[in-house]
Design goal:
Largest sheet: 3 strands, parallel
Oligomer: single chain
Helix content: 10-25%
Shape: rod-shaped
Structural class: mainly alpha
Radius of gyration: 44 Å
Strand content: under 5%
Number of strands: 3
Order of helices and strands: HHHHHHHHHEEEHHH
């Protein structure tokens, strides 16, 4: 610290270093000649005025400044600063002092007292001094309080105006800052361990790398504040306003953010593991790369939020609003998304293995190439959703709605289904091998070239479905409704069609070898060109069925095929014969010669 300059004698308006007033013990002997200069300085004179108001003898302070006593001895049993505040608290009003009484130099001088840690007892009166300093207008244009690095443990700043103050690196552990105004303050690297900041205004404050472990921040205003790399482990942020707040790489592990407003908040890389978010507002928040392992987001609003590639393993998202959210590549493994709103969300490439989506709304969502293996999708709504190449292996689909969805090339092998709605769904080239599709509605569905061997379609509805080129070998279709279905070129070898309604179905060129079709209804069906080798069926079921060009090793069926072929090969014969019969039925009709010659030629 530099010695006091003698120029103070000639210009008393030039104040010495504020800290010099209280740090003379180490250099009092060297600077004794300049003591009178110090006494004449403005900060010292202002202190004397305050002391006189509190009836504190100035000799006490002079003894300290002369090095005759320590500060502790100077204060004695009765702290003179405490006495000053207790006695003059009602009088020290900004309107009484005006704009020049508490100069900025005095404010900084008193700030230096706190920085040096002289008030370790931290009585409430000391905090009143800071409140006073921050509320009185100073003659310095900056008007900012400098408490950088100060030890303010347990201090009470309840309702204080500390806006724009420099508290960087300060220790405010267990301090009371409830309802304090810290808007725009510099609080970087400060410690607020277990501090009370309830309803405090920290808007636009700099809290970069601040330590807020288990701090009480209920209803605090942190809009547009900088909390990057800050530690908020276990902090209470219920109903806090964090709109547009920068929380990059912040540690919010086990923090309570229930009902908090994080609209548009910036949280990339933030650690939100085990955090509590019930009914929090995260609409438009940027959470890409954030960690939310085992976090509770039940009832939260994350509409239009960016959570691409985020880790949401085992996260509680019950009833959460993720409509139009970006969840591309996110990890939802074992997450609870019961009754969640995911309409129009981008979930492409996401992992939802073993996730619970019971009752969730995913209408018009993009789930292309997503993995939902073993997920619970009961009563979920996937209407008009994009599920191309989605993996639904062994998923639970009970009462699920896929109407109008696109499931082309989807993987549903081993999936358990009952009462699922696939009406109008595109399942072309989908893999559904050994899938259980009990009482599933597949009416008007597109199942062209779908692989469904050994799949159970018991009591399924396939009205108007297109199964052209589909593989249904070994499939179980007992009591299924396939009226008017298109199965041309389909492989139904070894399939079980007992009791199945195939009336009016198109089975042309289909493979029905070794198929069980006992009691099946094939009225008006088209089996032309089909392979009926070893087909198990009663021949009377093939009456009025088109069999031209089919192959069969059954003599009765072969006879029926031959008869139909003869009928098709000689249509003119039957036509001419009917004309002859018609000609003879008219009395007095002349039998045409040309007709006779034509009949002869056709019959030869």
């Amino acid at each position: 610290m530099q010695p006091i300059n003698r120029s103070v004698n000639n210009n008393l308006n030039v104040s010495p270093d504020p800290a010099d007033v209280f740090n003379l013990n180490s250099r009092i002997d060297k600077n004794r000649p300049f003591l009178e200069d110090l006494k004449a300085s403005q900060p010292f004179q202002n202190l004397l005025v305050l002391m006189r108001q509190a009836a504190v003898p100035e000799e006490r302070l002079l003894e300290f400044l002369m090095g005759k006593t320590s500060l502790e001895e100077c204060l004695g049993e009765k702290n003179w600063m405490t006495a000053l505040l207790l006695k003059t608290n009602d009088k020290l009003e900004p309107r009484w002092f005006g704009s020049h009484f508490l100069s900025d130099s005095l404010a900084n001088t008193l700030s230096a007292i706190f920085k040096q840690g002289y008030f370790e007892s931290a009585e409430k009166s000391h905090s009143k001094m800071l409140i006073l300093l921050s509320s009185v207008k100073r003659d310095d244009c900056s008007g900012k309080l400098d408490l950088a690095g100060a030890d303010l443990t347990n201090f009470s700043f309840c309702g204080a105006d500390l806006s724009g103050a420099d508290l960087s690196g300060a220790n405010l552990s267990s301090a009371n800052l409830s309802r304090a105004n810290l808007a725009g303050a510099n609080l970087s690297a400060s410690s607020f361990f277990r501090a009370n900041l309830c309803r405090a205004d920290l808007s636009r404050a700099n809290l970069h790398k601040a330590h807020l472990h288990k701090a009480y921040l209920s209803e605090v205003n942190l809009t547009e504040a900088n909390l990057s790399w800050a530690s908020l482990y276990g902090a209470n942020l219920t109903e806090a306003n964090l709109a547009w707040t920068n929380l990059t790489e912040a540690n919010l592990t086990a923090a309570n953010l229930s009902g908090a407003d994080l609209f548009g908040a910036f949280l990339p890389g933030a650690d939100l593991s085990q955090a509590f978010f019930p009914k929090a507002k995260l609409s438009g928040a940027k959470l890409s790369g954030a960690k939310l392992i085992k976090a509770n987001l039940s009832g939260a609003n994350l509409s239009a939020a960016n959570l691409s590639y985020i880790n949401l393993y085992r996260v509680n998202l019950t009833g959460v609003d993720l409509s139009k959210a970006n969840l591309c590549g996110a990890n939802f493994c074992e997450a609870n998304l019961t009754n969640a709103n995911l309409t129009e969300a981008d979930i492409s490439g996401a992992k939802l293995l073993d996730a619970n989506l019971c009752g969730a709304n995913l209408s018009s969502a993009n789930l292309s190439k997503a993995s939902l293996s073993r997920a619970n999708l009961s009563l979920a709504n996937f209407s008009s959703a994009d599920l191309t190449e989605v993996n639904l292996y062994d998923a639970g689909l009970h009462g699920t709605n896929f109407s109008g969805a696109n499931l082309s090339e989807a993987y549903l092998s081993g999936t358990r289904m009952s009462a699922v709605n696939f009406s109008g769904v595109n399942l072309s080239m989908a893999r559904m091998i050994e899938t259980r599709m009990y009482a599933v509605n597949l009416s008007d569905a597109n199942l062209t070239r779908a692989k469904m061997s050994y799949t159970n379609f018991s009591q399924a509805i396939l009205l108007g479905a297109n199964l052209t080129g589909a593989n249904l070998s070994g499939a179980f279709l007992e009591d299924a409704i396939l009226t008017g279905i298109n199965l041309s070129g389909a492989d139904l070898s070894m399939a079980y069609l007992s009791g199945t309604d195939l009336s009016g179905a198109n089975l042309s060129a289909a493979n029905l070898s070794n198929t069980h079709a006992w009691t099946a209804n094939l009225t008006g069906a088209n089996l032309s060109g089909a392979d009926l080798t070893s087909l198990k069926i009663y021949t009377h079921q093939l009456q009025d069925v088109k069999l031209v060009g089919t192959q069969s090793d059954n003599d009765d069926i072969s006879a029926m095929i031959k008869k139909q072929q003869e009928i098709e090969e000689a249509p003119k014969k039957y036509q001419l014969l009917s004309q002859i019969v018609g000609a003879f039925t008219f009395e007095g009709a002349e039998f045409p010669v040309e007709l006779t010659n034509q009949i002869g030629r056709d019959l030869i």
